[in-house]
Design brief:
49% of the residues lie in helices and 14% in strands. By secondary structure, the protein is an alpha+beta fold. It folds into three domains: 18-168, Roll (Ubiquitin-like (UB roll)); 176-568, Glutamine synthetase/guanido kinase, catalytic domain (Creatine Kinase, Chain A, domain 2, 2-Layer Sandwich), CATH 3.30.590.10; 587-697, Four Helix Bundle (Hemerythrin (Met), subunit A), CATH 1.20.120. It is globular, with a radius of gyration of 28 Å. It binds adenosine-5'-diphosphate and magnesium ion (MG). Residues 206, 333, 460 line the site of magnesium ion.
């Protein structure tokens, strides 16, 4: 028998985890006690770094980065383009004698001044004020990005204009987090909890993606240019066998996943789950949840790494929401919850009447928030890519409703009835007196069709697209929940002041709130036609396309909300609306252009080539005195489809010319219909594009 070793075994994972992060662990070793205490407090409370310690932090950060091979630093930020941005500066500073010293000042750590003129601002920034500012967000730690030959110190920052206008996605996220924390603080006081932290939201984003072989990708102009296939016939076998989901992971894919997990772990991003998804060649990665701001930064790093690592494996990672028509698209499930000032998850139904009261208060505040601002949640997930998913019976519909599950619905219905003694069926729940029955986690997680589902200890907003920065959705979520809690807390505070019994007040308030907002609760199948009718009857909005959905951002209701909680000014909000509309039009225009190019330069030539082959066959066979009936038949079909294709190309040209996005969509579909039929008729060696079967099954 092996002797029991007392030495702790450090696994390779433990050793590598966070090695590229200037984390609290690292800072504890390299900063003075005073500086460490100050920065720890900043990280917990949010806000800016204390200038008194900035010099010490910058020096320590530089030494640490150089020890990791860094030659450059960059401010890493999230402009309104949808991706991340970075501009690198080296640490070198000439010493005057022909050599250099490596330098990095407090100012360089805290603030950068990239030229903002080429980033979208939606009219926020006059061109003469081209200067933008980046400022370190210490709640997200600096990290090292590894290159081929050397590394770069990356400092997560916000990005603002000259007058402090938000030009990015992180600034409103931080503001909305502060708004939520403030209201949760009031709730904490009302419930008499012991405050141990500032309240914060948590996020665990589940990320779906496709991987295909790079050699096919390189032959598809549509994938290269638009991220999705604009043509392609559904193959005989696609996902009907339902054998891909959770199937054994192929070695080549596993190698990619192992690489990805390790790179994420080095960055302190807690990658946890990996598996095959529903569609062939589709996969998912999910982390362990973290504080919202950090979780979003980690999700953005994850998306960037996925693209890079795929390349190392001769693969291409497709993050588009709908790379292949006819098979499932990719989403991002936004698992969100809120930790109160007591350091506890307030969406966790506890085992005491007090815990239950907090839980029901939070749950009902969220129901109220979602019902009041369903239009904003919808707008926050609107994008041209996501338009292909929402409502396509694979993702939740564009109607935002809340799934609670039967048991929890029963509980809130009891609560709605209040302490009515005459309740016939079931019991009633009395706040402050009753413990709600334990909710089996499994029972609450069955419904996969709901866009906004309670899943045991969190809400899962499932309508996000795979390619999105989750910030926009969480800005809305934080802000609308802050407003709901504000309104409930205001009433309760007044009751407390009037010396009313707290539990009775809460009971009455929650009961009235449920009555008013329960129309948003739906536990059935969100894919059915009946639900669409029912939702319309209930007055729930159903905005099917991005331009319709985005209108919510322009509405007075949104302006009032975001201004009240100091998340976005009217100008900032409207600038976003403008950018997103512009983005929608741009995407449709380049998709239409690309479809036109492929149809006219690749597919049409192949069709007429086959026409010529068939025509000469018919002629030759006729001349030889035989009948070429079948060749003639196919020639007729090919000729008709070639004409249809040409008509589609013409329609595309007109749509592009008139800048009409609806016509672009229609003519892309028209062109595609002819092309996909041609694909079924043309000789395989004449077909100019890799097929769906090749791309989805040979990787
Ligand atoms: P499922 O969606 O199948 O229920 P899990 O329960 O494992 O799967 O969770 C999915 C994601 O939700 C994971 O990223 C997980 O870390 C995250 N999650 C779990 N609890 C919370 C929470 N309290 N707040 C935010 N995210 C959470
Ligand atoms: Mg999930």
């Amino acid at each position: 028998m092996a002797a029991k070793s007392s030495k702790k075994v450090v696994s390779a994972v433990e050793a590598m985890y966070g090695e590229n992060v200037f984390s609290l662990n690292v800072m504890a070793n390299v900063l003075s006690k005073k500086a460490f205490a100050s920065i720890s407090k900043t990280i917990n409370d949010g806000g800016a770094l204390d200038p008194a310690i900035a010099g010490e932090v910058a020096a320590a950060m530089k030494d640490w980065a150089i020890s990791k091979g860094a030659t450059h630093f960059c401010h890493w930020f999230q402009p309104l383009t949808g991706t991340t941005a970075e501009k690198h500066d080296s640490f070198i500073s000439p010493d005057g004698n022909g050599g250099v010293k490596m330098e990095f000042s407090a100012k360089e750590l805290i603030q950068g001044e990239p030229d903002a003129s080429s980033f979208p601002s939606g009219g926020l920034r006059a061109t003469f004020e081209a200067r933008g500012y980046t400022a370190w967000d210490p709640t997200s730690p600096a990290f090292i990005k590894e290159g081929e030959d050397g590394t770069t110190l990356c400092i997560p920052t916000v990005f603002c204009g000259y007058h402090g206008e938000a030009l990015d996605k992180k600034t409103p996220l931080l503001r909305s987090s502060a708004a939520l924390a403030k209201q949760m603080d009031r709730a904490g006081k009302l419930f008499g909890v012991k405050a141990v932290t500032k309240a914060y939201a948590t996020l665990g984003p589940e990320q779906e993606y496709f991987l295909i072989d790079k050699s096919y990708y390189e032959q598809r102009l549509d994938l290269i240019q638009t991220g999705r296939t604009l043509f392609g016939r559904k193959p005989a076998r696609h996902q009907q066998m339902e054998d891909h989901y959770f199937g054994a992971i192929r070695p080549r894919i596993l190698a990619f996943m192992e690489d990805l997990d390790q790179e994420l772990w080095k960055l302190g991003a807690p990658a946890k789950t990996r598996h095959n998804e529903v569609a062939p060649a589709q996969f998912e990665i999910a982390p362990i949840y973290e504080r919202l701001n950090l979780a979003i930064d980690h999700n953005l790093m994850c998306m960037e790494l996925m693209r890079q690592i795929a390349d190392r494996h001769g693969l291409v990672c497709l993050l588009h929401e709908k790379p292949f028509a006819g098979v499932n698209g990719s989403g991002k499930h936004n698992n969100w919850s809120v930790v109160g000032p007591d350091g506890k998850n307030w969406l966790y139904p506890g085992s005491s009447p007090h815990e239950n009261a907090k839980f029901l208060f939070t749950l009902i505040a969220i129901i109220k928030a979602v019902d009041t601002h369903a239009d904003l949640l919808r707008a926050s997930v609107a994008s041209p890519g996501n338009d292909h998913r929402l409502g396509a019976n694979e993702a939740p519909p564009a109607i935002i409703s809340v799934f609670l599950g039967d048991q929890l619905t029963d509980i809130i219905e009891q609560l709605e009835k209040g302490e009515a003694k005459s309740a016939k069926s079931g019991g009633t729940i009395a706040i402050g007196a009753d413990v709600i029955p334990t909710l089996p986690r499994d029972a609450t997680d069955r419904n996969r069709t709901s866009p906004f589902a309670f899943t045991g200890n969190k809400f899962e907003f499932r309508a996000l697209g795979s390619n999105m920065n989750p910030a926009a959705a969480n800005v809305v979520l934080n802000t609308i929940v802050a407003e709901a809690i504000d309104e409930l807390a205001t009433q309760l505070e007044a009751d407390v002041k009037a010396k009313k019994d707290f539990n009775k007040s809460l009971q009455a308030l929650l009961s009235a709130t449920i009555k008013k907002h329960k129309r948003v609760v739906f536990n059935g199948d969100n894919y059915t036609e009946e639900w669409h009718k029912e939702a319309e009857r209930r007055g729930l909005p159903n905005k099917k396309t991005t331009p319709e959905a985005l209108k919510a951002y322009e509405a007075e209701k949104a302006v009032t909300l975001f201004e009240k909680y100091a998340v976005l000014t009217k100008k900032e909000l409207l600038s976003r609306y403008e950018i997103y509309i512009h983005n929608y039009k741009s995407v449709l225009s380049y998709e239409a252009e690309c479809a036109k190019t492929i149809a006219s330069t690749q597919i049409f030539p192949a069709a007429v080539e086959y026409q010529a082959v068939l025509a000469s066959t018919v002629k030759a066979v006729d001349e030889a005195g035989s009948k070429a009936a079948s060749a003639k038949d196919v020639l007729g079909k090919v000729s008709k489809l070639a004409d249809d294709l040409a008509a589609g190309i013409k329609a595309l040209e007109d749509a592009i010319e008139s800048h009409n996005t609806d016509k672009m969509k229609a003519s892309m579909l028209q062109t595609r219909a002819a092309a996909d039929e041609l694909e079924a008729l043309l000789p395989a060696d004449l077909w100019p594009l890799p097929t769906y079967a090749e791309m989805l099954f040979l990787y």
